[in-house]
Write a structure and sequence with these properties.
CATH topology of the largest domain: D-Maltodextrin-Binding Protein, domain 2
CATH class of the largest domain: Alpha Beta
Structural class: alpha/beta
Protein name: Thiamine pyrimidine synthase
Number of helices: 13
Subunit structure: Homodimer.
Keywords: Iron, Metal-binding, Pyridoxal phosphate, Signal, Thiamine biosynthesis, Transferase
GO molecular function: metal ion binding; transferase activity
Strand order of the largest sheet: 2-1-3-10-4
CATH architecture of the largest domain: 3-Layer(aba) Sandwich
GO biological process, one term: thiamine biosynthetic process
Length: 321
């Protein structure tokens, strides 16, 4: 098993990432934002270089699938949700979890109090905004568990439909869209929030993955990448203003709208999600209990047929075989 202990983050200049370093690439789940601050910080501060890696962070976001990038060899490493990785493994495209960055679900179903939706049962027959693909799975698990039939409305990556009354309930992430709703002028007391984790839908989100084949070829590189990424997150949490500065620069370079207040909120919430509240859990560690729970849920919903043993999934297999 990878020993992912948080060490003191180095501050070597990124310029040292040159000759003699192993080249590798990472594709995040989305465009630059504080959800991925640890990786941009680790690159900017030379932490990957300190660990012997010349890392390139690839463009994520619309039209760029991190899961597909792993499979076609475009990326060596990728950020994926656990549910996506389990489905990839079920299809025979075996992945390895190198570090579980976000250790719990941050997805919320949100409704205005004026709608009268104060309990899950009150969502019956209502219009619910859902993202496409794997991002809808936690909400679908919530509907299944609560025996709800809802009117599913495709939701874009904005909250405009909810703000304009086009849906009764919207899917939001605590670190992102929920804050966007507040920034639009809606007060927290005007909203009812259904944190999926509070209803037994505890899907760990962002994790760092690579192909099993890639891990076997160079387990030392995979371990170094995971370690450097965790150090990048620790540096970001220890130096939040600098981390937001770095993220904003990458956002502007990618021509993504950049708002300091929102990115600061996002980084603060990422700290809440990444640093375990449970003393028995280490930063970067995938809980075997969460792994089993998500596996069972996906199997019950018919999204996977087979499962990978937990010890194999997190990479503690004999890489010499």
């Amino acid at each position: 098993m990878l020993l992912l202990l948080l060490l003191g983050a180095g501050t070597h200049p990124a310029a040292v990432a040159a000759t003699g370093l192993k080249k590798a690439s990472l594709m995040p789940l989305w465009s630059p934002q504080a959800q991925f601050a640890g990786y941009y910080v680790a690159l900017e501060k030379g932490i990957y270089a300190k660990h012997g890696i010349d890392l390139k962070i690839l463009e994520g976001g619309p039209g760029h699938s991190s899961a597909e990038a792993l499979q076609d060899g475009t990326a060596d490493f990728a950020v994926l949700w656990l549910s996506t990785a389990l489905q990839q493994n079920d299809s025979g495209k075996t992945l390895v979890n190198l570090a579980q960055i976000v250790q719990e679900s941050s997805m919320i179903l949100v409704a205005r109090k004026s709608s009268g939706i104060t309990t899950p049962a009150a969502m019956q027959g209502k219009k619910v905004g859902l993202w496409g693909g794997d991002l809808a799975l936690p909400a679908e698990a919530f509907f299944t568990k609560n025996q709800l039939q809802v009117n599913r409305i495709p939701q874009s990556y904005t909250v405009n439909l909810f703000l304009r009354g086009g849906v009764d309930v919207a899917s939001v992430m605590w670190y992102n869209e929920y804050h966007t709703i507040l920034m639009s002028g809606v007060n927290p007391e005007e909203l009812d929030l259904f944190f999926l984790k509070d209803y037994g839908i505890a899907f760990p989100e962002d994790g760092l993955y690579t192909l099993k084949e890639t891990y076997r070829q160079d387990p030392a590189l995979a371990a170094a990448f995971a370690q450097a990424s965790l150090e990048g997150w620790q540096y970001a949490f220890d130096h939040p203003e600098e981390a937001v500065d770095i993220v904003l620069r990458y956002m502007r370079e990618a021509k993504v709208p950049a708002n300091r207040t929102h990115q600061t909120w996002m980084l603060e919430r990422m700290r809440d999600l990444i640093v375990p509240q449970n003393n028995d859990q280490e930063t970067g560690q995938l809980s075997s209990v969460d792994y089993a729970a998500v596996t069972d849920t996906l199997r019950t919903m018919g999204h996977i047929m087979t499962t990978t043993a937990y010890d194999d999934f997190i990479g503690n297999f004999d890489v010499e075989n």
